[in-house]
Every structure is written in C-alpha cells, then in structure tokens.
Amino acid sequence: MGQTIVQYNGGMAFVGKVASGHDVHMDAGESVGGADSAPRPVEILLSSLGGCTGMDVVSVLRKMKTEPESLRIEIQDERAAEYPKVITKIHLIYKVEGEVPEENLIKAIELSLGKYCPIANTLGGVSEITYEYSVGAG
Q: What is the pLDDT of residues 17-53, one digit of tens each?
C-alpha cells in the first residue's frame, strides 16, 4: 500500500509528499483565501487522468511498434452545480502526430480507459467518460 502525506502550509496552500518522494503543491485562488501559487486539487486530479491514460496509450502503441511522435490530451469536464460539485462528465481529446494507424490508437485508448488506467476506472464510477481522437501525419 502506498502512502501520501499532505501538509498544510498556511493560507490555503498544501503540499503532498507522494510515495515516490516527490512533492505536489496545491493552492486556492485569492477569492477564497489562497495565494494562487499552485494548481487546485481537482486540476491535479484531471491532469493525473491525462498522464495516466497518456502513459498507457504510448505504452500500448509502443508494443504495437507504432509509437506516436507526439501525443496531446485535452480534457474537458462538467461538474454538478451543488456541493460536493462532483465531476459528472469528462471528455478526453487525444491528438496524435505520427504514423499511428487509427485502429491501433482506438485499441490503445480503449484498453487504457477500460482496463489499465486506475484513475479512469475510479472516476468512471462517478463520471461519464467519453473520448475522441485525431491523427496527424506529424
């Protein structure tokens, strides 16, 4: 089991010390008492989703010998109006450059979202997750 420790640093700033030893800084906007010095926790969560599925997609495509020249994942989210304002919808837009066959990309994305990415599979219990993609020549 991993362990993450989150330490309050005054104002609305927190630093998470994650199991790998790295620090994750978080803060809130000035309107709620923060200094706007770091990303918000939900922003980090969505970035983590992008990193998790992105690593899966690259790994699967690499095994298929069709590694992309570049991969960009844009993430759009919708949240409930009332507290706790859960994320109700997440739409991922995978933008790939390089000689990647469309069927390989689809397979890689679907394996990530359906099997490999623990963040997508955790969030998928609460949020509707959809995706689209584009492949450019690079």
A: 999 999 999 999 999 999 999 999 999 999 999 999 9
Judging by DSSP bridges, how do beta strands 23-26 and 14-17 pair with one another?
antiparallel
Helix (H, G, I), strand (E, B) or coil at 123: helix
Q: How far is 112 from 52, CA to CA, in rounded Å?
A: 8
Q: Could you give the CA distance from residue 38 to residue 60 in angstroms, rounded to a whole number?
A: 32
Q: Which two tokens stand for residue 9?
A: 């640093």
CA distances 129 to 95, 104, 119, 120, Å, are 17, 20, 11, 8
The 8-class DSSP code of residue 125 comes to T
Q: In this structure, are residues 44 and 53 in contact, taking their beta carbons and an 8 Å threshold?
A: no
- Tell me the pTM: 0.94
Beta strand residue intervals within 3-107, DSSP E: 5-8, 14-17, 23-26, 70-79, 87-97
Amino acid (1-letter code) at residue 95: K
The topology (CATH level 3) of 41-136 is GMP Synthetase; Chain A, domain 3 (3.30.300)
CB burial readout 105-128, b (16+ within 10 A) else e: beebbebbbeebbebbeebeeebe
